Amino acid sequence: MPTLRSATASASPAATPSPAAASTPRSVKRRLTPGRAGESPKASRHTSPHRSPHAGAGTACTPKLLSASPKSSRKRLYGDLVAAEKPKWNPRDPAQMRAVKEALHVATVPSCELVCRDNEQRRVFEFCKACIEQEKAGSLYICGCPGTGKTLSVNKVKESLGRWADEMGMETPDSLAINCTNLANTSEIFSKILGQFQNRKKGSSKLSPLQQLQSMFSNEESAPRRMMLVIVDEMDYLITRDRAVLHDLFMLTTCPYSRCILIGIANAIDLADRFLPKLESLNCKPFAVTFRAYSKDQISDIIKHRLKVLEYDVFEPLALEFCARKVAAATGDMRKALGVCRSAVEVLETRLQDSDQELGIVTFDHMDIALSKAFKSPIVDSILCLPQHQQMVLCALANTFQHCKKKATTLGELNKSYIEICRSTQVPAVGMLEFSNMCMVLSDQGFMKLGQSKEDKLRRVTLQIDISDIGFAFKGNRFFQKCLKQPRC
């Protein structure tokens, strides 16, 4: 049978069919000439879209394809490969609005895997898995800023450990989760752990819960046979002056017959530096895992992952990127990002209620309002209550430190910047004495700090508030936006 290439090469409108072409089976000819008259539409629908229009035995198929509309040709050629367009979101539908808010709620736990924390979860899982296989106690310390997925990751690891133990035919470890914010006092944590072994033989009532645990884990007969995963969340609350509770808790894993896998979770990054050296000297230094703040890409991916359960688009891509960038630059707190997204949805909902606006999605403007509310501080309200000239002094300070990247300036240089702003806005400037008094008032209110000098103009000036607070305060005010745009240095 001839190859497809030889059959194609021999086909020409002006030439007579060659012997090779004449011997070509009908099935091959049918594939080569999808536009022949009399061929059923069903057969032409299966023609490969990647084949050249000159590959057939004739050019009769070309007008048929060119005459069709682009949309119909795409559907006919690619069939099911064309992705169906998503249905539009209806913000006026209470059920859809409720589904969006639930997907963005911090209490909603993703049903599938947790994205962007694969490496951290793998390290925690491998540590716990090694302890279970060796039937050996161990301690793990997890630290990171708030909203970085520490508790959620540990809970996912706990579920993975249960599935792994079932697959391996091993005994599933018991688990105990303790939130230290719910403890009446720090030493109550030992009572919580002891309560898990109440079916065991109890020690003397004269012993404290800690002493009973130490006695239990030091005796082979009274020691538990099953491993137990103890998750201590918000461990920062266990920090006392002598840190005795914290040290005693980790030392439980060093007892000869202890079966505790202790996982401590804390928000303080420097907590490890403060108490790990002492634990190392006590021979109970925990394995540490740090959860870094989320980046803008991670925040965007997590929000998109949560919204996958919906069949419609809720956010404009630019609005979602704006939220991710702002939160990542400020804190990297995923809970903050989810709260901002919910707030932006509520802004859209309010606008739809107050007007007859057409249906739409959350735009950049909606997200901008939500971010302004989320990051607005009491300092912003204080700035807005200042007199106009004092506000212009703050604008001069912001321009000086933002554009020149300085940490300090002098009162004389600040006065020059202030006079330039007054000229550009056509507002009469005050004299040097009154300007110095205004700066003293701003210093007393904590906006800036003035140093000491024999000459007033040489007094050192440093900004005591965040420059972004000044920008937030004057956002939307054209007069002060013009002041802040003035180049300095």
CATH architecture of the largest domain: 3-Layer(aba) Sandwich
Counted beta strands: 8
Secondary structure: helix percent = 40-55%
The structural class is alpha/beta
Family: Belongs to the CDC6/cdc18 family.
Subcellular location: Nucleus
Pfam families: AAA_22, Cdc6-ORC-like_ATPase_lid, WHD_Cdc6
Keywords: Cell cycle, Cell division, DNA replication, Nucleus
Structure, described:
By secondary structure, the protein is an alpha/beta fold. It starts with a helix and ends in a 5-residue tail after the last helix. 28% of the residues are buried. The protein has 23 helices and eight strands. 50% of the residues lie in helices and 8% in strands. Mean pLDDT is 79; it is low at 1-83. The chain has a five-stranded parallel beta sheet, with helices on both faces. A three-stranded antiparallel beta sheet has the order 6-8-7. Residues 1-25 have a biased composition (Low complexity). Keywords: Cell cycle, Cell division, DNA replication, Nucleus. Residues 136-285 form the AAA+ ATPase domain. This is Cell division control protein.
